[in-house]
Design goal:
single chain, elongated, mainly alpha, HTH-type_TetR-like_transc_reg, 11 helices, Tetracycline Repressor, domain 2, transcription cis-regulatory region binding, Homeodomain-like_sf
Amino acid sequence: MAPLLRWVGECSLTTSVRAAEPLRQTCEDPAVASTRDRILTAAEELMRDIGLARVTTKEIARAAGCSEAALYKHYRGKEEIFVRVLEERLPSVGPLIARLTEDPGDRNVHDCLADIAVHAVRFYAASTPIAASLFAEPALLRRHRAALRRLERGPETLFLSLTGYLERERRAGRLGAAADPAAGAALLLGACFQRAFLGHFWDEEPARDLDAFADGLARTLLDGLGGPGGTGGPGR
């Protein structure tokens, strides 16, 4: 369970400013953009249906209505397509953290963490079925890991982004001086992943409403981090 938590629990590849940037900066005509979009749509559907491990570029191309050679004109391989699906097709949490890190505005820490928790649960609920099949085939996981390194992507970006946000709040005095941003990020992401995982395992929505879950999680986390907005009520 720990490897899956590390992968899916930290693997929102949209979760830093860098990760939110496109893998390729290109100016495309509508026909090219349409082909790329069809490929992503086909890949997302196949990954949801049979899992990432069993999907091939040949199957993706067939479902997208193009040749495999045409697919490779747009993407370097299945791993890049997987990254793009995560970035462009699944519920996004990374850009939210990036915005809050840059400037949270007048939002208090409690509200920011609750919002992040809601988005994280939705991301994990969408991504877990896609990525889980990799862990059934160790050799494929090793190849996938190597390909992601070549793409300069990795599963730690969400964790690092949230850690950076909490570190910023600590420097701003909105968390206790002794707060551990990395531990706080791990606790929040772990709780969100568990909720999403249990929902899939039992094939039913958890009894507790998502917003109530996020609110309670943020309050409890802030109690441990020494910030206003814990059980004593939202602070500024």
